[in-house]
Protein backbone atom coordinates (compact mmCIF):
# COMPACT_ATOMS: atom_id res chain seq x y z
CA UNK A 1 0.00 0.00 0.00
CA UNK A 2 1.29 3.45 -0.92
CA UNK A 3 2.05 5.97 1.81
CA UNK A 4 0.15 8.69 -0.06
CA UNK A 5 -3.22 9.24 -1.71
CA UNK A 6 -3.60 11.09 -4.99
CA UNK A 7 -6.33 13.70 -5.30
CA UNK A 8 -7.66 11.99 -8.40
CA UNK A 9 -8.37 8.89 -6.28
CA UNK A 10 -10.55 10.80 -3.81
CA UNK A 11 -14.28 10.35 -4.25
CA UNK A 12 -17.34 12.44 -3.47
CA UNK A 13 -20.80 10.92 -3.11
CA UNK A 14 -24.33 12.26 -2.90
CA UNK A 15 -27.05 10.30 -1.11
CA UNK A 16 -30.11 9.89 -3.34
CA UNK A 17 -32.38 8.23 -0.75
CA UNK A 18 -32.75 8.44 3.05
CA UNK A 19 -30.09 9.25 5.63
CA UNK A 20 -30.64 5.97 7.50
CA UNK A 21 -30.50 3.79 4.37
CA UNK A 22 -28.34 5.74 1.90
CA UNK A 23 -27.84 5.05 -1.78
CA UNK A 24 -24.55 6.69 -2.73
CA UNK A 25 -24.18 8.27 -6.14
CA UNK A 26 -20.60 8.99 -7.22
CA UNK A 27 -20.32 12.69 -8.12
CA UNK A 28 -18.40 12.42 -11.39
CA UNK A 29 -18.75 16.10 -12.39
CA UNK A 30 -16.28 17.29 -9.77
CA UNK A 31 -12.97 19.03 -10.30
CA UNK A 32 -10.62 20.23 -7.57
CA UNK A 33 -12.00 19.99 -4.05
CA UNK A 34 -10.80 21.31 -0.69
CA UNK A 35 -11.99 20.02 2.68
CA UNK A 36 -11.28 22.53 5.44
CA UNK A 37 -11.55 21.42 9.06
CA UNK A 38 -11.02 23.95 11.84
CA UNK A 39 -11.85 24.35 15.50
CA UNK A 40 -12.69 27.39 17.58
CA UNK A 41 -10.74 27.86 20.79
CA UNK A 42 -11.43 29.05 24.30
CA UNK A 43 -8.83 30.97 26.24
CA UNK A 44 -7.87 29.08 29.41
CA UNK A 45 -4.73 31.08 30.16
CA UNK A 46 -3.72 31.08 33.80
CA UNK A 47 -1.09 33.00 35.71
CA UNK A 48 0.75 29.74 36.30
CA UNK A 49 1.20 29.29 32.52
CA UNK A 50 4.69 30.80 32.59
CA UNK A 51 3.66 33.69 30.33
CA UNK A 52 2.13 31.51 27.63
CA UNK A 53 -1.39 31.95 26.29
CA UNK A 54 -3.23 28.64 26.66
CA UNK A 55 -6.22 27.54 24.62
CA UNK A 56 -8.43 24.49 24.25
CA UNK A 57 -10.44 23.40 21.24
CA UNK A 58 -14.19 23.90 21.34
CA UNK A 59 -16.52 23.76 18.32
CA UNK A 60 -15.35 22.20 15.07
CA UNK A 61 -16.17 23.65 11.66
CA UNK A 62 -16.04 22.14 8.21
CA UNK A 63 -16.36 23.54 4.74
CA UNK A 64 -15.84 21.95 1.37
CA UNK A 65 -15.23 23.94 -1.76
CA UNK A 66 -15.11 22.41 -5.21
CA UNK A 67 -15.65 23.13 -8.87
CA UNK A 68 -18.03 21.49 -11.32
CA UNK A 69 -18.53 21.88 -15.05
CA UNK A 70 -21.70 23.90 -15.67
CA UNK A 71 -23.95 21.04 -16.81
CA UNK A 72 -27.67 21.67 -16.17
CA UNK A 73 -28.49 18.14 -17.43
CA UNK A 74 -26.25 16.49 -14.82
CA UNK A 75 -28.22 15.23 -11.79
CA UNK A 76 -25.49 16.14 -9.28
CA UNK A 77 -25.08 19.65 -10.71
CA UNK A 78 -28.86 20.06 -10.51
CA UNK A 79 -28.99 18.77 -6.92
CA UNK A 80 -26.37 21.29 -5.71
CA UNK A 81 -27.97 24.15 -7.66
CA UNK A 82 -31.42 23.33 -6.31
CA UNK A 83 -30.12 22.94 -2.74
CA UNK A 84 -28.60 26.43 -3.06
CA UNK A 85 -31.71 28.02 -4.58
CA UNK A 86 -34.14 26.33 -2.18
CA UNK A 87 -32.06 26.46 1.03
CA UNK A 88 -32.32 22.70 1.41
CA UNK A 89 -29.77 20.19 2.69
CA UNK A 90 -27.81 17.73 0.60
CA UNK A 91 -26.37 14.56 2.18
CA UNK A 92 -22.82 13.90 0.96
CA UNK A 93 -19.64 12.02 1.75
CA UNK A 94 -16.23 13.35 0.75
CA UNK A 95 -13.86 10.39 0.98
CA UNK A 96 -10.15 9.77 0.36
CA UNK A 97 -11.12 6.86 -1.90
CA UNK A 98 -13.98 4.55 -2.79
CA UNK A 99 -16.60 4.37 -0.02
CA UNK A 100 -16.68 0.57 -0.21
CA UNK A 101 -12.96 0.00 0.47
CA UNK A 102 -11.93 -0.86 4.03
CA UNK A 103 -9.86 1.86 5.69
CA UNK A 104 -10.93 4.75 3.48
CA UNK A 105 -12.08 7.82 5.41
CA UNK A 106 -13.92 11.06 4.96
CA UNK A 107 -16.60 13.45 6.15
CA UNK A 108 -20.32 12.76 5.91
CA UNK A 109 -22.86 15.48 6.63
CA UNK A 110 -26.07 17.01 5.48
CA UNK A 111 -24.69 20.14 3.88
CA UNK A 112 -26.03 23.60 3.13
CA UNK A 113 -24.83 25.06 -0.16
CA UNK A 114 -23.55 28.52 0.76
CA UNK A 115 -22.00 29.54 -2.55
CA UNK A 116 -22.76 28.65 -6.17
CA UNK A 117 -20.66 30.96 -8.36
CA UNK A 118 -20.52 30.65 -12.14
CA UNK A 119 -17.18 31.20 -13.93
CA UNK A 120 -17.20 32.18 -17.60
CA UNK A 121 -13.57 32.15 -18.78
CA UNK A 122 -13.43 33.10 -22.45
CA UNK A 123 -11.51 30.04 -23.66
CA UNK A 124 -12.73 27.46 -21.13
CA UNK A 125 -15.88 25.56 -20.26
CA UNK A 126 -18.25 27.39 -17.96
CA UNK A 127 -17.74 26.08 -14.43
CA UNK A 128 -19.31 26.66 -11.05
CA UNK A 129 -17.50 27.05 -7.73
CA UNK A 130 -19.52 25.48 -4.92
CA UNK A 131 -19.04 25.83 -1.19
CA UNK A 132 -20.88 23.67 1.31
CA UNK A 133 -20.96 23.56 5.11
CA UNK A 134 -22.73 21.20 7.52
CA UNK A 135 -26.29 22.43 7.85
CA UNK A 136 -28.88 22.37 10.63
CA UNK A 137 -29.82 18.71 10.84
CA UNK A 138 -30.73 16.10 13.42
CA UNK A 139 -27.84 14.08 11.96
CA UNK A 140 -24.53 15.49 13.17
CA UNK A 141 -21.54 15.48 10.81
CA UNK A 142 -19.47 12.33 11.20
CA UNK A 143 -15.97 11.26 10.26
CA UNK A 144 -16.50 7.99 8.39
CA UNK A 145 -14.03 5.11 8.35
CA UNK A 146 -15.03 2.21 6.12
CA UNK A 147 -14.86 -1.03 8.12
Provide a descriptive summary of the structure in words:
- The structure is a single chain.
- This protein is mainly beta and 147 residues long.
- It contains 1 helix and 8 strands; from the N terminus they run E-E-E-E-H-E-E-E-E.
- The chain has one helix at 75-86; strands at 11-15, 24-26, 33-43, 55-69, 89-95, 105-119, 127-134, 142-145.
- Strands 1, 2, 3, 4, 5, 6, 7 and 8 form an 8-stranded antiparallel β-sheet that branches.
- It is globular.
Q: Strand content of the residues, in percent?
A: over 45%
**Mean of pLDDT:** 96
Count the E strands: 8
Overall geometric form = globular
Gyration radius, in Å: 18 Å
Label the structural class. Answer: mainly beta
Largest sheet: 8 strands, antiparallel
Stretches with pLDDT under 50, minimum 5 residues:
none
Question: What is the terminal separation in angstroms?
Answer: 17 Å
Helical content band: under 10%
The count of helical stretches stands at: 1
Q: H/E series, N to C?
A: EEEEHEEEE
Would you spell out the secondary-structure blueprint of this structure?
Layout: E1 11-15, E2 24-26, E3 33-43, E4 55-69, H1 75-86, E5 89-95, E6 105-119, E7 127-134, E8 142-145
Antiparallel strand pairs: 1-2, 1-5, 3-4, 4-7, 5-6, 6-7, 6-8
Could you give a quick summary of the protein structure above?
This protein is mainly β. The protein has one helix at residues 75-86; strands at 11-15, 24-26, 33-43, 55-69, 89-95, 105-119, 127-134, 142-145. Strand 6 (105-119) and strand 7 (127-134) form a beta hairpin.
Amino acid sequence: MADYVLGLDAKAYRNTTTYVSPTWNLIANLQDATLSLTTDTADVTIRGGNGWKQEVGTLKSASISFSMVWAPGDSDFTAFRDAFLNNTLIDCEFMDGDNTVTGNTGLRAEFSVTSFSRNEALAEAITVDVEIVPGKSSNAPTWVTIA
